[in-house]
């Protein structure tokens, strides 16, 4: 099976590109790289050209998630595996690759949720390091979806995409893209609707969490949950909402797995204390907004 480097970027549809560009720059603390002639707004929190892209759209939500493979050889292995499994990988045009500052890239549609997934190995490496503003963001950490058919989606991710389950909690599951060490870069939460749950950015310092809480409290940005501590990855978390109501998370600390002899996935107790060891409760808006831009018509389910 093919090997990943990491979750590379998330593309979000936003209803007011100027408002959201300001929010992701000033409130989240990403670096705004450019807004191109089509109005796409690129952000980074690493030396990659982008880790978040905002697309202007009437329907806010999640457009796609990009995963970086270890190298070109692993990318080709992924392509061959997708063809063999009938996943109909579609190459991104040269023109769009140029727009995205990426090398060869291809996309498939996750058949249970309709989410488009992209795979690439090369993205423009920016000369100047990401300089944190108020929050020492280390990386795009994970994307989580609310999912109707969790079992089939787990099966797809583990059998077709080479993800490994790190933990189960009832029907919910946290997965890592092998051999990336972090406890999860993608997770599935059982729901009656397929939609975005949240986007996570990992931060360097516990102070980043406390400072963020006060910064958000002193603004008109809604707090969605936290600060608290998650049992599955042991991270300390804080969630807030973007201008379209999509949930963003900062988290500090995360269990890391070795490539070989990693522990088995646990069956964690389904209790509110498992989600927050400190006993907090999410707001009603938590993880509620973010339509998945559907691409289902392009594939045979
Ligand atoms: C409450 C959500 C689903 C959640 C739960 C646990 C973790 C973790 O262990 O890191 C998360 O990151 C979450 O977002
Ligand atoms: Fe999370």
Kindly describe this structure:
With 301 residues, the chain is of the alpha/beta class. The protein folds into 2 domains: 4-120, 2,3-Dihydroxybiphenyl 1,2-Dioxygenase, domain 1 (Roll), CATH 3.10.180.10; 137-292, Roll (2,3-Dihydroxybiphenyl 1,2-Dioxygenase, domain 1), CATH 3.10.180. Helix content is 20%, strand content 36%. The chain has helices at residues 17-28, 72-84, 94-100, 150-160, 206-217, 272-275, and strands at 4-14, 31-35, 41-44, 52-56, 61-69, 90-91, 105-109, 116-120, 137-147, 163-169, 172-177, 186-190, 195-203, 223-229, 236-241, 247-252, 266-268, 291-292. Strands 1, 2, 3, 4, 5, 6, 7, 8 and 18 form a 9-stranded mixed sheet that branches. 46% of the residues are buried. The structure holds the ligand CC(C)c1ccc(C(=O)O)c(O)c1O and fe (ii) ion. The ligand CC(C)c1ccc(C(=O)O)c(O)c1O binds at residues 144, 189, 198, 200, 230, 232-233, 235, 249, 251, 275.
């Amino acid at each position: 099976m093919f090997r990943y480097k990491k979750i590379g970027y998330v593309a979000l549809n936003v209803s007011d590109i100027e408002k959201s560009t300001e929010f992701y720059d000033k409130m989240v603390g990403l670096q705004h790289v450019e807004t191109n002639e089509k109005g796409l707004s690129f952000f980074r929190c690493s030396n990659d050209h982008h880790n978040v892209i905002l697309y202007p759209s009437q329907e806010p939500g999640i457009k796609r998630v990009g995963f970086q493979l270890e190298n070109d050889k692993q990318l080709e292995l992924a392509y061959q595996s997708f063809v063999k499994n009938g996943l109909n990988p579609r190459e991104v045009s040269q023109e769009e690759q140029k727009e995205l500052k990426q090398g060869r890239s291809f996309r498939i549609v996750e058949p249970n949720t309709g989410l488009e997934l992209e795979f690439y190995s090369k993205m423009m490496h920016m000369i100047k390091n990401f300089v944190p503003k108020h929050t020492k963001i280390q990386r795009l950490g994970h994307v989580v979806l609310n999912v109707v058919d969790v079992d089939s989606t787990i099966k797809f991710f583990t059998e077709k995409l080479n993800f490994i389950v790190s933990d189960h909690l009832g029907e919910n599951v946290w997965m890592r893209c092998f051999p990336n060490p972090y406890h999860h870069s993608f997770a599935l939460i059982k729901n009656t609707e397929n939609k975005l749950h949240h986007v996570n950015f990992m931060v360097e310092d516990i102070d980043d969490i406390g400072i963020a809480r006060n910064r958000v409290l002193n603004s008109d940005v809604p707090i969605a949950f936290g600060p608290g501590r998650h049992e599955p990855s042991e991270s300390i978390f804080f969630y807030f909402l973007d201008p379209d109501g999509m949930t963003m998370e900062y988290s500090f600390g995360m269990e890391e797995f070795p490539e070989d002899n990693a522990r088995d996935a646990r069956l964690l107790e389904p209790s509110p204390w498992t989600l927050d060891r400190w006993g907090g409760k999410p707001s009603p808006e938590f993880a509620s907004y973010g339509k998945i831009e559907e691409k289902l018509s392009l594939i045979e389910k």
